[in-house]
Amino acid sequence: MKTDSNTAAVVTGGASGLGRASAEALAAAGMKVAIFDLNEAAGEEIAKAIGGVFCKVDVTSEDSVVAGFAAARAAHGQERVTVHCAQVSKGGKTLARDRETGGFKRYSTEDYEFSARGILVASYRVASLSALGMAGLEPLDDGERGVITLTASAAAQDAQIGQVGYGSCKAGVNGLVLPLARDLMDLGIRVNSIMPGIFATPPMLSVKDRAPAIFEGLAASVPFPKRLGKPEEFGSLVLELVRNSYFNGQNIRLDGAIRMPPR
């Protein structure tokens, strides 16, 4: 797909981290970018810097996402590119020792459901609502109408202790990709996911400030290159998935060959 001013894009979670890097990469390639996020101050600032538009959106709310797409389309026209990076989840072990009682406390069904809604359900919501809009577009070369990129995680394949909700729901994101791609193939809408490893996003950079030894250990655990991923490297892959129309139905690791240990 061509990346120019005739192409509109939506990036969820675009106010920081991997979403911000994606928004910046798409805008630098010439596209009109709408940022969906809850952080109004950062979202507005980044949207202004890239010549885009900010929409305050909660991806766990159907009404909020519908309204966000309506606002973005009013500003830029129907998007042909959607990158979904926003997510919310709660961590915890299935069973963990309760030091006060000497027994066990459970990662509750409610916490698991929260993670499922914030990761898996939100991914389907954003992808399917975007596809509904893309379906009405005129096809481009090869009959292509759009491309949707979801964000999974290396944890989708090797989740660590305490990631039962996060890891299984990210695996579910990967599981969405092929059936979505097949459902949408006759409409010329492609769907892929990226599984980032350990990236230098704001949460990870806060670890560097709080516990530099832990941060250095994380960097050293990456086979090569021995560092955390750069958000712009994620943005670069997002852009390639847009440009290369033969990418479809793929779950792609971007992780420096790391395989996470249990802890």
From TrEMBL:
Q: Keywords, A to Z?
A: Oxidoreductase
Indicate yes or no for the key word Repeat: no
InterPro entries named in the record: NAD(P)-bd_dom_sf, Sc_DH/Rdtase_CS, SDR_fam
Listed PANTHER family: 17-BETA-HYDROXYSTEROID DEHYDROGENASE 14-RELATED, SHORT-CHAIN DEHYDROGENASE/REDUCTASE
Q: What is this protein called?
A: SDR family oxidoreductase
Species whose genome carries this gene: Novosphingobium tardum
